[in-house]
Amino acid sequence: MSAEATNPATPGPVAGAAARWRARIDLRRLGRAALLGPAARDRLPDAIGHVAEAHRAHHPDADLEPLRRAWVLAESSHRGQMRKSGEPYITHPLAVTLILAELGAETTTLTASLLHDTVEDTEVTLDQVGKEFGAEVRFLVDGVTKLEKVDYGAAAEPETFRKMLVATGNDVRVMSIKLADRLHNMRTLGVMRPEKQARIAKVTRDVLIPLAERLGVQALKTELEDLVFAILHPEEYEHTRELIVDNASRADDPLAEIAAEVRSVLREAGIPAEVVIRPRHFVSVHRVARKRGRLRGADFGRLLVLVGEDADCYGVLGELHTCMTPVVSEFKDFIAVPKFNLYQSLHTAVASGDGQVVEVLIRTHQMHKVAEAGVVALGNPYASPADTSEAPSVATGAGADEERVDPTRPGWLSRLLDWQAAAPDADTFWSTLREDLAQDREITVFRPDGGTLGLPEGATCVDAAYAQYGEDAHACLGARVNGRLATLSTVLRDGDTVQLLMGQDPAAEPSKEWLEHAHTPAARIAIQRWIATHPTPETPEEIAERGGTAGATTEDVQAGRGDANPFRVSAAEPPVADTPDSVGRSTAESQASDTPAADRTGAAVALVDQPGATVRLAGCCTPVPPDEITGFAVRGGVVTVHRVECAAVAQMKSVGRAEVGVSWGDTAGCRVTLFAESFGRPHLLADLTEAMAGEGAEIVSATVEPPSQQRVRHTYTVQLPDAARLPSLMRAMRNVAGVYDVSRAQTPGA
C-alpha cells in the first residue's frame, strides 16, 4: 500500500487505487486541449488519446470513429461550461469515459459515456444523438440522463432510484456509466460544502456502492468505499492511513517472502502462473484492524495467483496445500459456485514460518478481468452470437422477435426488478431497496433439481420460496432442508439444499406470520401486497362483540369452513375415549381409556375368553382388525383390548398384570383414531375430509390444535365400514397436499 496522492475531495491522502486512476489522466491538461477545439477528421483528438489507448488495450480491433465523432459533439456542446472546480466541463465526461475504457467497456458504452451529459446540460437532443450514433447509444444516454438528479431532494429519492433500477434492468451499461460518473464526482467533491459532501457520500455508501458490488465492478467499488470513508470518518481514515504508511516503511515484507516461496513451489510443479501482491485498500485494512486488533505485515495485502486455465487453479491449490501449511478453514471455492455478481476465484490461506497467515486468491486471467470490472468486462450484453468481436468471452443469445436479451443480468437484478414492479408505492420500494442493499453477504442454496438460489445472509425458507416461485409461493406448505423437514422460519446456511413443498391450490393464502421470517424484498412485498388486498378475518373477540359464534360444526369441517382458531367438533354420540375412572387404577390403566364394544355402533367385535366379561377397545391405541391384540382385566369385570405394541401393554406387564386372551369376531366395521400432521394452509380441512370421505370414512369427532411454527396437528376418530380399508384411508390422507404424516393413535409410554 504505497503511492499516495492529494485529493480535494478528502481530508487526507487517498488510497492507492485513486492515485492509479488519476495517474492515467491530467484533467487540467485535457481541459486545455478541449478548449483548443476539435482536431481534423482524419485523426483522433489529442484530448482523448488516453481513452483510445486504454480502449485498444482491451479491444485491439475496435472502430474508434464513433469515439471521434462523440468527442466532437461533446466538446462543442460543452464548450464554455465550467465545473465548480474551475476546470472545463468536458474534463468530466472525458474522465468518466477513461474510467470505463480502463475497465474494458466496449465502444458503444464509451460513446454514450462521452455524450452522457449533453442532453441534460446542452441543447443536444436525444433525437439528434439517435440520428448520429444509433438507437443503442440513444438508449444509454437517455437512461443516464434520467438519473442525473438522483441525489437532489430526499422526497425525490424513492422514485428516482426506482427509475435507476428499471434503467439498469433494461441495460446494465446504464449503471456502469452512472457508477463511473459518481466515482469522478466523488474524486472532485472537495469543492462542495461539507454538509453536501456528507449527503452525497451517504447516498453513495447506501446505494451506489452496494450496486457496484452486485454488478461485480470491484475496481469502482473499492475506490468509492475509500472516498466515502475519508469523508464520513476522517479520523478513522487518518488512523488507517498512518497504519499503512508505517507498514510500508518496514524493512521486511512477509508478503514478498511468501510470494517468492509460492513462485518457487509453482515453478517446481511446472504450473505457469503469475504471483502478485495485492495491497488492501483503506476500508479493507480498517475492517481487518477492527477484527484482529494489532495488524501484522501479512494483514496489509493478499497474494493473487493468475493462471491460464480453470484446471490450473485447482492445480495451484493442490500444490500450495501440499508444500505449505494451509489454513483449511479459509478455503472457499467460488469457481464451482460463483458469487451472485459473477465473481469466480479459489480462496485459501497459508501460514508463514513465523505464524503469519497470508490469504491467497487463485483465478484465471479472464476471471480476474471479470472480478475487477464485473459486467463492464463482459462487453456488449446484447450482441448477437455472430458479433463477438468486443466480447469474446460472453455467452450471448438472440431473443425471439428481436427482444432485448441480457445474458449477463445477474439473478439478484432480476429479483429486484420483479419486486420493484410489485411494490405498492415508491416509499415501500425505497425502504426495501435500502434493506436489501444493506445485505453485504449472500449465500447460495441448492435446489433438488440442481439449480441454485442466491439469498442474503439470514434468509429463511420463506425467502427461498418467494425467490424460486414468486407470488406462487403463497401455496408453500413447508420445506425440507438437507433432506429433513423444516419450518418455513428456518434460517438457511450457505450450501444448504432446500426442497420446497408446494400445494396446488391457486387461491392459496400466505400466513401473516411469514412476515416475521421474511428478509428479502421479494418475500416481504409479495406477502404485504396480498395482505393489503385481502381483508383481515374477524377475531374471536370481534365475533363475540357482535353476538356471533366462532365455533365450527362437523359439517363445517367436512366442508372446509372451519376458521383458523382451534376447534373441536363431535357427532351426536360421545367421543371414543370415555373419562376414565382412575380410582384404584394404575397410571397405565388411566392412560388406556377405553370404550365398551357394545356401545360402538358398527364397531368391530372383540371376543374374550372370560364368560360374561364386558369388552372395551382401548382408546390409547384404537385397535382394529387385523391388528394383533391382547387384553387385561380391569375393575368391574371389564376387559380392555390393546394392540400388542401399545406402550400401555408393556407398562401393565411390568406391574404384574395378567394378560387375557382376546380375538376378533365380526369385522364388518371398525372405529379408529388417527393423528395427522400438516403444514397450515387454506382449505386444508376441506381437502382432507374430502379424501377421507372418498374412502368411506365417517368422521365421528375431530380436533385441530392451534398452529405451531406453521405446523398443525389433527386428531380424527372415524368409523370405517370395513377394517381392511384402513391402510387405504391413511394413504389417501397422506396424499393430501400439506399433510406429511398420518399415524394411528398411540399413547406414549412413561
UniProtKB/TrEMBL annotation:
Molecular function terms, GO-annotated: kinase activity
Q: Where do the segments described as Disordered lie?
A: 385-406, 538-601
Q: Which stretches make up the ACT domain?
A: 673-747
Specify residue ranges for compositional bias: Polar residues: 584-594
Any idea where the HD domain is? Answer: 89-186
Keywords, A to Z? Kinase, Transferase
The pathway where this protein functions is:
Purine metabolism
Q: Do the record's keywords include Glycoprotein? A: no
Which Pfam families did the record assign? ACT_4 (PF13291), HD_4 (PF13328), RelA_SpoT (PF04607), TGS (PF02824)
Keyword Transferase among record annotations: yes
InterPro entries, per the entry: ACT-like_dom_sf, ACT_dom, Beta-grasp_dom_sf, HD/PDEase_dom, HD_domain, NT_sf, RelA_SpoT, TGS
Q: Please give an example of a GO cellular component term from this record.
A: plasma membrane
Give the domain of life. Answer: Bacteria
Residue intervals of the TGS domain? 441-502
> A biological process (GO) annotation for this entry?
guanosine tetraphosphate metabolic process
Family per similarity comment: Belongs to the RelA/SpoT family.
- Name of protein: Kinase
Question: What is the organism field in this record?
Answer: Streptomyces canus
